[in-house]
Amino acid sequence: MRKVRRGISDGGGNREEAKMEEDGVNLNWSLPVPSVQELVRQQRPDVVPPRYLRDDMVLADHRRESSQGLPCIDLGKLMDPPSRSTELHNLHSACHQWGLFRLVNHGVSDEGLRMMQENVQGFFELPYHEKQKSAQRPGSLEGYGHAFVTSHDQKLGWNDMIFLKCLPNHERNLDLWPQNPPEFRIALEKYSEDMRKLAVAVVNYIGMASGIHEGELDLLMKSFGEGKFEIRMNYYPACPEPERVIGLEPHADISGITLLTECADMPGLQVLSNDDCWVTVPPVHGSIIVNLGQIMEIYSNGTYKAPDHRAVVNKEKERLSIATFCYPSPSLPVGPSPQVLAATGLPPLYQTLSHSEYMQRFFNRKLDDAVPFIDTLKM
Ligand SMILES: O=C(O)CCC(=O)C(=O)O
Ligand SMILES: [Fe+2]
């Protein structure tokens, strides 16, 4: 069993949580907590306030390894018939061993990436009261705030975020979309379209690499083309004691795949390797990090993995990242691929659920550290 908690922040079994569980209240919301960016800006602390201290988790776990060996996949080579089969083989190993890879030649224009990154940076540079116009409303995770804070004494990540539903269009809550910087909305619309196109292409090749073909492959691509795209923009301020906090705590995404870009060249993302080391994924200008989410781990019947990853922070400078969570259409059940099962001759490791049941199980699950979410879906 995996050691790392999945998907949800530390809560530690206190009274509020126990009560929420009794009441059947789900976790698709977050308590308002102070902005870390404001805390740093106003107080310029020399030491980290107690609520952010994660000595328990971070120090025990702070072995680092070089990034050598992290896979890099070239989408141009996948698209080009003469180089395809070698690159599919590399993609298969990347998804199997890491569940994460750097993608180059991805076809998203530098201009599109830059415009989005500048607008995200511009949003976080606004005065607090301006950002608060997009603040999360009670009972929802969408908007400017924090995710998965469910009790008043819960430890916090060194992070502020804004989380917005982008596609399909009718899922947008435009009242939460910042009007400032003035080009933010245009940039986000364009970026989410770019991410949709890219996700369809990436999923096509991940499907091929896992041995899926014809009708099922078409269905997989179509369902990502019609899928849900949700974007989380993260701001991690510089921290006086970076080794004592965590930017974003270890988790695996519940998406199909996640496409991650970074606004500058500050490292922070780390992925857990097969031999349990946190490996830094250094930013490389213009590339996009792809990590598999738990829907793809289930779809591949466990052949591919949704890796545990986390973000650490540093003393020198803030770091900003943009994570696009790409989900297949809710009409596609979440379960092992019939063609993968047929090709491997293995029994299904996971149950097949409707998309809404999968999401409900995630948000309604018990805050039980011992069992990672994906393991609760095993047969
Ligand atoms: O900031 C990062 O590099 C990681 C972001 C992430 O994992 C997430 O938002 O789910
Ligand atoms: Fe993530």
UniProtKB/TrEMBL annotation:
Keywords: Iron, Metal-binding, Oxidoreductase. Belongs to the iron/ascorbate-dependent oxidoreductase family. Transmembrane segments: none annotated. Pfam families: 2OG-FeII_Oxy, DIOX_N. Residues 227-328 form the Fe2OG dioxygenase domain. The keyword Iron applies. GO terms for molecular function: metal ion binding; oxidoreductase activity. The keyword Metal-binding applies. Residues 1-21 are annotated as: Disordered. This is Protein SRG1-like. It comes from the Eukaryota.
